[in-house]
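re the bet — no i am not wrong, look at it urself. input seq straight from the record:
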Amino acid sequence: MAQRHSLAVPYGAPALAISFLACVATGLELSVNDHAADFTLSTELGPPISLSCLVHNSSQAEELLWYRGDGQVGLKDGNRVNISNICISPVNESDNGVTFTCKLARDKSVQVSVILDVKFPPRLSGEETLYVEEEKDVTLTCNSKSNPQAQTTWYKNNQSLTLQQNHHELYQTSEIFRLSIKKVQKSDNGTYTCVVQSRLGNGTRDFHLIVEDKKPVFPKEAVIAGVVVVTITILFGIVARKDKFFKVW
């Protein structure tokens, strides 16, 4: 007679299976500010913004988690079950490009992210005076950080700067705009202006470049060589006349 073999079912497994099937059947999901998928939120500097995360199609209390980048945001006890809100106040430049993510605590794969797109004009002003010795190199640097990225231009004495090959060099990133002048000459004297133009505003910064006379280089090597030659000459003279010195003594 064939024997029947039964598989042992762990206690509580049916309940877990039912819970899992219920989750699949109801399509549990999250939304942030009524967005069920990742999205980008455009905003400006200053005014606070609120992000609201909501659980959908859940038949039980669900705990929510918030993350700023990779770091978890601290939430109060009454602000983490089925609905959770966070506020960014005030909004500043450092928030631009930051990702805020709401996740389901028991299944972090259920999540919605929002990327902040913070608009701000270039913040550029003031002036600086630079004294540079002739034949030396000098670099003028502007902070051109803005969103959207601004257009940047260099002027000399209120005229567009004519770049000379092997004499002027430009370097630019999303945050800085740099002009390098190699082996400055007296003709490089003048006021250089960095102009940053954005649809949200403009910024300028002046650099007053003063090229000083080249300082004479002290001939250290020549002096050392001369001292060595004189010393050796004296020593040879002493050796050549050592007999006379001995007779005197």
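see?? Residues 220-240 form the longest helix (21 residues). told u. also The chain has two domains: 27-120, 127-212. so pay up
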